[in-house]
Every structure is written in C-alpha cells, then in structure tokens.
C-alpha cells in the first residue's frame, strides 16, 4: 500500500455524491445477523484546512497518543470546551463566499481514529458492511490503511463493503471529515452548521444469503377491510406474519382481513423476512395513500394534518440524538394532540420513524436539500437548475426513499426546502414517482405544482388561506385541483405564536385546506455556562441570524412553551360547545374531530365551579361517537350555590386507560361554560380624603399630598403607581426585517412608547374622592394620553378608577394599557382567572378560568431571548405582597423581580438579576401576539386600539392569607 504525502482533496469540491459507497437500501434496526456499534470515544485531530495533514494517520501503527478525544455520535464544535472550534448559525446566508462548488481554504477538518477488535463470536464467513448514518458534510474513510471511499449527504446513510479488509483485532478505522464541501451548497437549512460524525457508526455482518434491499408493500382497501401484502426482496425468501397466518414467498401478494394503520390507530403487525442467511423483523402497517377528488386521503378518508416541523436538536449534543430523546419528542407530540411531523429539512435518524410507526404520526419525510442562500443572487447558479448537480440530487432522493420506504407513517416524500425551482427537482420528482407510487410528493417551492401532488405554502396570511380554501387563489389549472397545506406557519419564536385558533378554524371550515405544520418543534439553544442558552452571534460568528434559531414550541431543555400548550388546546380532537342558554340545566354538544378513531378510548367528566372552586364533579355519559359525529349531552342539575357568585361548568375528555403514549386520565380536551356571571366589585364612596402634613389619607391608604401618588395601602408599601403602555417587545412584535407589512414593535419604539413622560396637572381633594390628573406622552411627539386617577374608599377597601383619553393623531395600537407599581416584597401569588400559564388576546384558548397559585419566579416564561411574558388573562382578583386586588372588568396581571426596561434590555436570561422588589402590572388591555417573526402579525381584532377607556381596581389588605 502507499500513502500520499500531499493529500488530494479534489473530492471536497466535486459535485458528485461520492465514490465507493454501496447502493442505498432499506434500513432496519436489527436482525439475527451480528452487528458491532463503533460509537463511543474516538481519537481526534483538528486541522484548519482540508490539506493540512497527509493521509498517514490512516496507516496501521500510527501514533495518535497526543490527539484529543471526541464522542461519536457527536459534533466536534460542541466538545472540547471550545478547543475544537465553535458553532455557526445562519438562517439562509452561506457562511462562506458563494462560488459553487468551491469552498474556503480555511476548512476545518477533523481526523477521527477508532481502533477496534471484532467480538470473539464474530462469524468468519460472509461479508461485512460498514455503515455511517450521518456525517457532516463530507467524509473520506480508510479501514486498515485502505481508502474505501468518500461521500457527501450529511443526513443520509452510506455503507461500504469491508469484509475483505477486516481482521480479528486491532482494526484501524480512520475518517477524515471536512466541515465545508460542495455538499454544503445543498445543506443551507436554517440551523447550526455543526461538523462531525453525528449519527451511528455500525459494523454489520452479512451472512451468505442475507437480506440486501426489500420493499414492504402493504395497502388497505377501505371498502372491504382487506389488506394486500407483498414484500419485494433482492434476495429470495419468505414473509411470515403469524397474527395473519401469512407465510408466502417474497414477491408474492397475499390479501387478508386486517385492521388498518393510521396515525390515530397505529396498528402494526409483527412479521419476519426470512432468507437463507438472515431473519429481519418487520413491522407492517396496512394503509393506502391517495390523491382523490382533490383531497389527500388515507384509507378512503380525508386527513387533516395537525403538524409540526421538527429539526433534530439537543442543547448539548446538537443533532446527535439518542433513542430516548427521540421517544420523548414523539410522546410530547402525541400528548399535545399533534398528529403529523415534517422532518425539516432532512430525513431524521431512522429510529425516529420507527417511533412514528409505533405511536402514530403522519410523516412528511424531507430530502436533505436546501439551497436558500442563492436567493441573495436571484437564484443564479442554483445547483437544482444545473445539470452537473443532478446526480447528487438524485442520490439524495434515492438514499431517503430507499432507507425509509418501509415506514407506514411516511405518507409524503418531500423534495427538500427552499431550493428554488429547476430541472434537478423535476428529475427527483420523476424518479420518486416512478420508484414509489404509493405515496405523494411534496415541495413548497413549486407554486405551480408542476412536480408535486399538493399545493404547499409557508406563512400564508389568514386572508390568503381563506381565499385558497374558497378556490379563489387562481394559479395553474393543476394547482386549482389540488389540496392545500401550510408546510410552515405560526412561527413559534419567543412569545407566541398568536392566531393559531384562527388558522385552525379555516382548516376545519374548508375541505381543500388539509392543515399545516407549525414552525417549529424546539428552540435550538446551545447550553452555555455564561448565557444559559446561546444563539446566533454568541460564538463570534462573522455572519449570523441571532435568536432566529430559537423558534420552537419547546424550550431547549424540552419543557413545553405556552405556545405548545395553546396548540394542544387548538388541536383538540374532541370539541365541546355550549347550548348558549346560560341556563341552570345545560346541554353540551360533543363533537368527535378525529379522522378515524371513535371516542371509545375516552372517558368524560364534568365539574361545577363556584367562584373558581370546584364544589361537585362526576362522570359524563358520552356515546362512542364515530369521526365527525356529534351528540347533545345533558349536564346534571347544578348543585345548590350561594346567590351572587360566579359559577360554571368544566367538562373534560380523558384517556380511559393507559396507552402507549400517555397514562390513564391524561386530559385530551376540555371546555368551560358559564352559568352565572361574576358580580362586579362595589365600593361605596363613603370614606373621606383627609389632608395632613404632606400626606393625604383615604380609607386604608396614604398618598403624597404634593403628587397624589399612593404610598401605602393597608400598611403595604406601594411605589411608582402610574399608567403603563410599554412592554418589552416580543420577537413577533418586532417582526422580521424582510417583512413588508407593519411591524409594530419597531414603530412603538420609534414613537417613544418606551420612554413616556408623566406630567402632573392637578391633585384634587374632593368630598369623597382623591383625583389626580396627568398627561402621559412621549418626548418629541404631539400625541398623548390624558389620564385621570380617581381614588375612592368605603373605609376598608380602596377603589382606583383610571380614565384614559387619547390626544392627537394616534395611528398605532398600544402594546398594553394598564397600571404599573412596585412592592417591596412578594413571593406567593394567588389569583382567580385564567391560568395556569400566560395568555394574550390571540393566545388564550388554553387559559382555563380557575383558582391558581404560584411563586413570582414561577410566573416567568423563560424565553431564550427575554421579552414580554407571563401575563395571566381574565383575572377577577389576585393576591400578592399583602394585597388583594379585584378588577372591574377582568384584567391581565404580571409580576416580576425586574423592570420592563431591564427585561427589554436583556439579551439572555442571565442578564436578568432578581431582587426583592416586585414590579406588578395590572392591564386593562394587551395587544395581540401574532407570528410576525416570520408570518402575519396579530389580526386586527386583536389590536389594542387607542380609544377612550375606563377601568377600575379595588385594593384591600390581605393580612394572614399567605400574603407574601
């Protein structure tokens, strides 16, 4: 053998997919053939360029004793405490000059070494395959000194025949991985650029007569309940399915009565593919996907996708996920009523699809392809429209389809994401259609639907979605006949997304609208010792897109965000509607919104609340309604109750027994219906203000005589009470720079709403009231808010009535409207109103009216980039810091241990230092949230318009009731 002293690296910039790898084939988790995982600790050396080191490290006996170590699977930039470089985040900009297929000379290159022995029982006969499930972005491989090939296609498997090179012990596996390659131009996928061997490396024994490739065809005929099974195999064998008494030769179809597979009823039949040399377990799901009468149908029924986009992510491991993390993702999706996942923007680890089969999720399996950065040059030189790149595109399509073709959960193949249009995409679509006619083809960028079976868009506004639903959107004749999905919508960046319920109402109203996929599943924050979680720019990147990488329904540690809780509520598969009579004996209409499952797996219960406390509860008898059916269910007689109290019903649908994805009594859906309205607080103005030396007293309160500012209420220190209209802008308030519609966060700041001046016009001591007149306005602007604070008391309680009148030409809504003050201390908070989590005008479907309790710290929502958060909606009263506060009407409240200004200035949670002082906001109104970080802002009905307003709060001491 020989070794080059000057390495040849032309393959790095070669547009071909590589050389030496075996043809792609179906992936399966295990068989009775031997396998050896090569995961674990590998020796590692990092070089600054692709050609910095020669190939001698691959030679037997090479001394790598002074090298570092990395864990495989893993990314080297997330290991070594910074010694191995740093992550880079861009949304769509390539972090290197765009000159395809060339990449920078400075090309971080990681040499990996693993020395291994074969197990003592490793068979001496047969062949051996070395499999890499994922390497970013280009790898060259040597085994025992022999160069066996190189490959690109980071999120795709590559296998090499190596049996002739192996020996019993001291096998040397050497892998050189380049961060940048020609393949990087095809992988511009709005995520961290993370080089490394980040998926499994496995040695597979291949006995004589073992399985090569096989294709499980398992269709279902909904008209007669029969399934037809045929397993095509490159090696002859037999197919066994004991539960169906099936024992047939490969390639031979058999038709039997079966239960079908759906995401709601994921029935799998265990089987085996048996060849001369191997037995491969099969998990067979019978289902038929069809485009019929302009609708996507599975087993003859239209499907409504309630989906999410999922990048693979872990805050310390990056895209190197273990099986338990994948399972956690699927369980969380199921428990939050999600029924579909788009594998943005690449095929996931194959074990994830096994879980989707097992637990039930529809899957859009997306190819490892995105060339978004070419939009900066109007798509000039885009690889998907350059014939030189077509073999690489076809290789990526084939490796996805062949690997994943036996998963019943996969109902769509997606050509990729945001890659423009071109001949290469057409070639991919034609190959996929020819190879697998049992599934549909998706690609969002093909608005004319030349190559696809569905009209797909991302971030279409509500009004356009409705127009599409009504078939008034125009387009080509083919497009007008196709169903529509939003492959991305409701950008879940920071606080939000708002408007989910409004989208869902459209999806359910128009048959053509077959649902969508929220962007996205999880925040891609990287665990950081000084910042909590890092995002773009935190590693000194030359180009980056900031916290745009933190736009998920889960926080980086996989805690559900309020957005996911809201989405669960919006997606509920059971709907409860009241008869609207508000009568003491009510009727609840129960509707089954499933596509396939009846309600026999659910139990139903009612409870009756008086002033937010449950006083009686019981079972509710609901028939096992078929999909789409409704029933009017009578509630029992309401229990006896005190007159003058607010009361209402809560009904719930729960799992009647343990399932594979949640335990018995898991709440699937709920609804609330009022019976008697809340009596508003009344404070007769019998108390008289009394002026003293520098002080005015009124009932339980004292005021500064000069300014009229309240200083104590019931002995509790209260400081800085004033009108407040500012909130720390959310990512959705600020919107994205490329947005052409109005971005209110930017306009609010330009107007100066974050630096309002409060002018004192008068302090008036009346017979039964203390009145303070002010004007609140930003510097340099003529607009303002005439604000009057009127204080009255009955001796024990104190009522504040705030009257606000706009002055000047206001042409913007307000962020919030209410009062703000600070308390010297507070810890425990109790309230009666919406909870348990935060809610805003267009994100409060999941806000349940009840009595709740929390600490001040627990009220905060830990968005990776700090912003407005934590407001509780529809609050009747709140108790904190020794005060009880009632509202007329209901209000929003929030409490935090830092000011809004400090929250606004923070870029990471570690910038916020809690103190003893608690700042409290009581809001009459809040502006909606929307999803304008990449989508529409809040709908007009959720705007907080500037108009005359009056609202009141009643304060009283709360001694002896866990006040602080």
Give the class from helix and strand content and strand pairing: mainly beta
Helical run tally: 11
Low-confidence stretches: 1-6
Percent range for β-strand residues = 35-45%
Helix content: 10-25%
Number of strands: 60
Radius of gyration: 32 Å
Principal-axes geometry comes out as: globular
Overall pLDDT confidence: 96
Distance between the termini: 78 Å
Largest sheet: 16 strands, antiparallel
Describe what this molecule looks like in 3D.
This protein has 964 residues and is mainly β. The chain is 10% helix and 37% strand. The strands form 13 sheets. It has a 16-stranded antiparallel β-sheet that branches. The longest helix has 15 residues, at 390-404. The N and C termini lie far apart (78 Å). The model is unreliable at 1-6 (pLDDT under 50).
Topology, pairings included?
Blueprint: E1 18-19, E2 35-37, E3 40-49, E4 68-72, E5 88-90, E6 106-116, E7 127-132, E8 135-136, E9 138-143, E10 146-152, E11 158-161, E12 171-178, E13 187-188, E14 191-193, E15 196-197, E16 201-206, E17 214-221, E18 226-233, E19 237-241, E20 246-249, E21 254-257, E22 269-275, E23 279-284, E24 289-292, E25 295-298, E26 301-302, E27 305-309, H1 323-335, E28 340-342, H2 350-359, E29 362-366, E30 370-371, H3 390-404, E31 410-414, H4 423-435, E32 440-442, E33 455-458, H5 462-469, H6 477-480, E34 484-489, H7 500-509, E35 513-518, E36 526-528, E37 532-534, H8 562-570, E38 574-578, E39 587-592, E40 602-610, E41 613-619, E42 630-634, E43 647-655, E44 667-676, E45 690-691, E46 695-698, E47 701-704, E48 710-713, E49 716-724, H9 731-734, H10 744-751, E50 756-765, E51 770-778, E52 784-793, E53 798-807, E54 816-823, E55 828-835, E56 848-855, E57 872-880, E58 883-896, H11 900-905, E59 918-926, E60 949-957
Parallel strand pairs: 13-30, 27-28, 27-35, 28-29, 29-31, 31-32, 33-34, 34-35
Antiparallel strand pairs: 1-10, 2-16, 3-4, 3-6, 5-14, 6-12, 7-11, 7-16, 8-15, 9-10, 9-12, 17-18, 18-21, 19-20, 19-22, 22-23, 24-25, 25-26, 36-37, 38-39, 39-42, 40-41, 40-43, 43-44, 45-46, 46-47, 47-48, 48-49, 49-54, 50-51, 51-52, 52-53, 53-60, 54-59, 55-56, 55-57, 57-58, 58-59, 58-60
């Amino acid at each position: 053998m020989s070794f080059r002293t000057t390495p040849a690296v032309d393959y790095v910039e070669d547009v071909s997919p590589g050389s030496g790898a075996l043809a792609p084939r179906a992936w399966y988790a295990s068989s009775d053939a031997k396998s050896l995982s090569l995961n674990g600790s590998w020796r590692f050396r990092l070089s600054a360029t692709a050609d910095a080191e020669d190939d001698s490290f691959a030679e037997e006996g090479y001394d790598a004793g002074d090298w570092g170590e990395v864990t495989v699977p893993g990314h080297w930039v997330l290991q070594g405490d910074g010694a191995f470089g740093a992550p880079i985040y861009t949304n769509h900009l390539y972090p290197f000059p765009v000159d395809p297929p060339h990449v920078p000379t400075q090309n971080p290159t990681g040499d990996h070494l693993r020395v291994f022995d074969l197990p003592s029982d490793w068979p001496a006969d047969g062949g051996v395959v070395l499999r890499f499930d994922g390497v970013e972005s280009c790898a060259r491989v040597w085994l025992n000194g022999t160069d066996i090939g190189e490959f690109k296609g980071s999120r795709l498997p590559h296998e090499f025949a190596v049996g002739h090179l192996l020996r019993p012990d001291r096998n040397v596996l050497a892998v050189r991985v380049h961060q940048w390659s020609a393949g990087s131009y095809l992988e511009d996928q709005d995520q961290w650029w993370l080089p490394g061997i980040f998926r499994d490396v496995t040695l597979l024994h291949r006995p004589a007569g073992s399985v090569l490739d096989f294709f499980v065809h398992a269709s279902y005929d909904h008209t007669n309940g029969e399934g037809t099974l045929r397993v095509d195999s490159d090696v002859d064998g037999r197919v066994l399915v004991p539960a169906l008494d099936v024992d047939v030769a490969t390639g031979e179809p058999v038709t039997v009565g079966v239960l079908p597979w759906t995401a709601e009823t994921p029935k799998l039949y265990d089987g085996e593919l048996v060849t001369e040399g191997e037995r491969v377990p099969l998990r067979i799901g019978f289902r038929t996907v069809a485009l019929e009468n302009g609708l996507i149908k599975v087993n003859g029924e239209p499907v409504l996708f309630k989906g999410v986009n999922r990048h693979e992510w872990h805050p310390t491991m990056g895209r190197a996920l273990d099986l338990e993390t994948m399972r956690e993702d699927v369980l969380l999706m199921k428990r939050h009523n999600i029924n579909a996942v788009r594998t943005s923007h690449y095929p996931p680890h194959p074990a994830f699809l096994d879980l989707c089969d097992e637990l039930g999720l529809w899957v859009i399996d997306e190819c490892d392809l995105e060339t978004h950065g070419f939009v900066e040059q109007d798509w000039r030189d885009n690889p998907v429209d350059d014939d030189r790149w077509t073999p690489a595109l076809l290789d990526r399509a084939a490796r996805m389809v062949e690997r994943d073709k036996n998963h019943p959960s996969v109902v769509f193949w997606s050509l990729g994401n945001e890659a423009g249009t071109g001949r290469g995409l057409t070639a991919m679509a034609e190959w996929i259609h020819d190879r697998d006619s049992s599934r549909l083809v998706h690609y969002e960028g093909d608005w004319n639907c030349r190559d696809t079976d569905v009209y797909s868009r991302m971030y279409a506004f509500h009004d356009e979605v409705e127009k599409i639903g009504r078939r008034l959107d125009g387009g080509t004749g083919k497009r007008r006949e196709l169903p529509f999905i939003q492959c991305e919508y409701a950008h879940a960046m920071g606080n939000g997304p708002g408007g989910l319920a409004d989208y869902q109402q459209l999806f359910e109203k128009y048959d053509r609208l077959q649902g969508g996929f929220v962007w996205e599943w999880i925040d891609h924050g990287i665990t950081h010792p000084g910042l909590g979680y890092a995002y773009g720019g935190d590693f000194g990147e030359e180009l980056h897109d900031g916290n745009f990488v933190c736009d998920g329904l889960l926080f980086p540690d996989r805690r559900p965000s309020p957005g996911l809780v809201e989405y669960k509520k919006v997606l509920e598969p059971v709907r409860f509607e009241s008869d609207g009579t508000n009568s003491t004996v009510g009727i609840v209409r129960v509707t089954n919104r499933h596509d396939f499952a009846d309600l026999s797996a659910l139990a139903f219960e009612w409870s009756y609340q008086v002033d937010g406390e449950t006083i009686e509860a019981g079972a509710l008898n609901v028939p096992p309604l078929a999909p789409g059916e409704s029933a009017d269910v009578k509630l029992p007689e309401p229990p006896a109750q005190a007159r003058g109290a607010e009361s209402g019903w809560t009904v719930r649908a729960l799992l009647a027994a343990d399932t594979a994805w949640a335990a018995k009594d898991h709440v699937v859906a709920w609804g609330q219906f009022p019976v008697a309205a809340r009596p508003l607080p009344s404070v007769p103005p019998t108390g008289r203000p009394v002026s003293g030396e520098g002080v005015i007293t009124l009932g339980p309160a004292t005021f500064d005589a000069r300014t009229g500012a309240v200083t104590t209420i019931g002995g509790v220190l209260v400081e800085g009470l004033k009108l407040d209209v500012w909130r720390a802008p959310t990512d959705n308030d600020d919107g994205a720079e490329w947005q052409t519609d109005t971005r209110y966060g930017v306009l609010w700041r330009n107007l100066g709403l974050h630096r309002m001046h409060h002018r004192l016009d008068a302090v008036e001591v009346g017979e039964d009231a203390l009145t303070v007149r002010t004007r609140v306005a930003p510097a340099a602007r003529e607009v303002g808010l005439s604000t009057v604070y009127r204080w009255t008391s009955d001796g024990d309680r104190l009522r504040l009535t705030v009257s606000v009148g706009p002055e000047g030409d206001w042409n913007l809504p307000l962020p919030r409207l209410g009062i703000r003050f600070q308390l010297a201390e507070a810890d425990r908070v109790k309230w009666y109103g919406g909870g348990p989590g935060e809610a805003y005008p267009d994100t409060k479907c999941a806000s349940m009216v009840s009595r709740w309790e929390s600490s001040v710290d627990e009220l905060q929502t830990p968005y990776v980039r700090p912003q407005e958060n934590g407001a509780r909606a529809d609050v009747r009263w709140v108790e904190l810091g020794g005060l009880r506060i009632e509202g007329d009407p209901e209000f929003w409240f929030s409490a935090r241990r830092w000011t809004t200004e400090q929250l606004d200035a923070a870029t990471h949670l570690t910038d916020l230092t809690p103190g003893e002082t608690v700042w409290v906001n009581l809001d009459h109104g809040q502006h909606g949230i929307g999803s304008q970080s990449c989508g529409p802002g809040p709908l007009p009905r959720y705007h907080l318009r500037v108009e005359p307003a009056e609202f009141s709060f009643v304060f009283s001491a709360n001694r002896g009731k866990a006040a602080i």
